[in-house]
Amino acid sequence: MEASASEKTKDTRMIKVGRVVSDKMDKTVVVAVDYRRQHPIYRKALRRTSRFKAHDEQNQYQVGDIVRIEEIRPLSRTKKWIVRELIERPTRV
């Protein structure tokens, strides 16, 4: 019995959850992902933020939205992520 090619290769695409901080570009949003790390010497918890450019085909996501992004093949020099789903949209007044 042989395993098919889809069973052999495990899908290891990285998924992150973050907040949209910019939607000024066409079909692109900037997503900030916050995480906590410990200082190597002082052991204090530090909050760090990474910013990722993600593809947004319909320009439907706005600043403040909480979204899930997934790693894909490079679409441009800096855009290697795609927005997969909206998790939470804040109430706008």
Strand order of the largest sheet: 1-2-3-5-4
User: How far is the first residue's CA from the last residue's CA?
Assistant: 61 Å
CATH topology: OB fold (Dihydrolipoamide Acetyltransferase, E2P)
Strand content: over 45%
**CATH superfamily (homologous) name:** Nucleic acid-binding proteins
- Which CATH class? Mainly Beta
The biggest sheet, with number of strands, parallel, antiparallel or mixed sense and barrel status, is: 5 strands, mixed, barrel
CATH architecture descriptor = Beta Barrel
SSE class: mainly beta
Give the overall pLDDT as a whole number.
90
Structural topology:
Layout: H1 5-8, E1 15-22, E2 28-38, E3 45-55, E4 66-71, E5 79-88
Parallel strand pairs: 3-5
Antiparallel strand pairs: 1-2, 1-4, 2-3, 4-5
Question: What do these coordinates show?
Answer:
With 93 residues, the chain is mainly beta. The chain has one domain (13-88): Nucleic acid-binding proteins (OB fold (Dihydrolipoamide Acetyltransferase, E2P)), CATH 2.40.50.140. 4% of the residues lie in helices and 49% in strands. The chain contains 1 helix and 5 strands, in the order αβββββ. The chain has one helix at 5-8; strands at residues 15-22, 28-38, 45-55, 66-71, 79-88. The protein has a 5-stranded mixed β-barrel. The protein is globular, with a radius of gyration of 17 Å. The chain starts with a helix and ends in a 5-residue tail after the last strand. Residues 1-9 have low confidence and may be disordered.
